[in-house]
Design brief:
Length: about 350
């Protein structure tokens, strides 16, 4: 019963601590919708889609004549609500959210007029929120879209640089989003940018977890105790094996890159030193190692690799000598633990939770 209570407490703390995130997007060709799907597989967020009131418009017709007309109207009178094309009402209470991610296409190097309408109409309600921006285009750069966003939202805090996904890298959108999320300073939730430690052969490296149901469940498990698994090299690009328990899945066809950590079939963990395309649930990415460094750390090509996953770096504490520290309890920093305190400790060279 104590173990069940501990796990329930960890989950409740996660819910209580979470800062809500909203993803707002407009998609005309479907590319932005695919980006949003990849994004929400990696972070917990509500989603709202912006739709034009006039759904008969073909913005690309006559060499984008209609789209150009809409953009020129905004450019001529950017402070006049009448300059912006009408959109369907959006039934979302923006006051419920601390973080907002905008996903928008680019029209003729500018932000799509439909998304401009939403931001213009809701500029005051978005003030003081933390905002991230993802822009989809065929090949054009996004500097003017960033300028449009800053003009329309002068009072927000930008989480970081905008992410540009174009025709040449759209197929890699999941890994691009994972790398981008690691650079964004959103208001924190339980495990957005949560660090996990990976220890192999006495060496420990950090990994940044994405924010989804799988990682939330994994963090809850690791809050109880570290998890040690036995993994084997496979295919010349990964080490993988059974976790010993299942996690929630949000599988998507992705191309995993060196350093990526994914969940396979709900109960197997894969850590990559090469690349492979398959249906996975993304968990995170090892921080700061080159491909050659990853091969060394992950013992590429070997079998029966012992891998420990934890939320605390305890590798600096070595097993105590029996005559010096027998039956005494120490903190993770190596000092004597006070009686009655709760947490994770070392006793007789072993980690305990009390």
């Amino acid at each position: 019963m104590k173990r069940v209570f501990t796990l329930m407490a960890a989950v409740l703390m996660s819910v209580a601590a979470q800062a809500k995130t909203l993803v707002v997007y407009y998609s005309y060709t479907g590319n932005c919708q695919e980006i949003v799907t990849a994004l929400t597989n990696q972070m917990e967020a509500d989603v709202v889609r912006i739709e034009p009131a006039d759904k008969t418009q073909k913005y690309e017709a006559n060499n984008y004549a209609i789209g150009t007309q809409l953009l020129n109207a905004i450019k001529a009178n950017p402070n006049d609500a009448a300059s912006y094309p009408a959109i369907d009402p959006v039934s979302v209470n923006l006051a419920d959210y601390e973080n907002v991610v905008i996903v928008t296409p680019l029209w003729w190097s500018q932000m799509a007029a439909i998304m401009q309408t939403f931001l213009f109409n809701n500029s005051a309600q978005l003030a003081d929120k933390t905002v991230g921006l993802i822009v989809s285009s065929y090949s054009s750069g996004i500097s003017q879209v960033v300028a449009d966003a800053k003009r329309l939202l002068p009072d927000v805090t930008w989480a970081g640089d905008a992410l540009w996904i174009n025709n040449s890298n759209h197929s890699r959108r999941s890994s691009l989003i994972a790398d981008w999320l690691a650079t964004q300073n959103f208001n924190s939730s339980n495990n957005m940018n949560q660090k996990m430690y990976i220890t192999i052969g006495g060496r420990t490296e950090t990994a940044t977890l994405v924010d989804n149901a799988a990682t939330q469940a994994l963090v809850a498990r690791l809050q109880e105790a570290p998890v040690t698994v036995t993994l084997n090299a496979s295919g010349g690009f990964e080490i993988w094996g059974a976790l010993g328990f299942s996690l929630p899945t949000s599988n998507q066809q992705i191309t995993a890159q060196p350093g990526d950590i994914v969940l396979y079939n709900g109960s197997n963990i894969c850590i990559f030193y090469g690349s492979n395309s398959w249906s996975y649930t993304r968990l995170g990415k090892i921080d700061g190692l080159s491909q050659s460094e990853l091969r060394t750390f992950l013992k590429a090509g070997e079998s029966n690799i012992s891998v420990t996953l934890s939320l605390d770096n305890t590798t600096g504490i070595r097993k105590a000598k029996a005559d010096e520290r027998k039956s005494k309890t120490y903190t993770l920093q190596g000092t004597l633990a006070r009686a009655g305190t709760k947490g994770v400790f070392i006793k007789d060279g072993k980690k305990i939770i009390r």
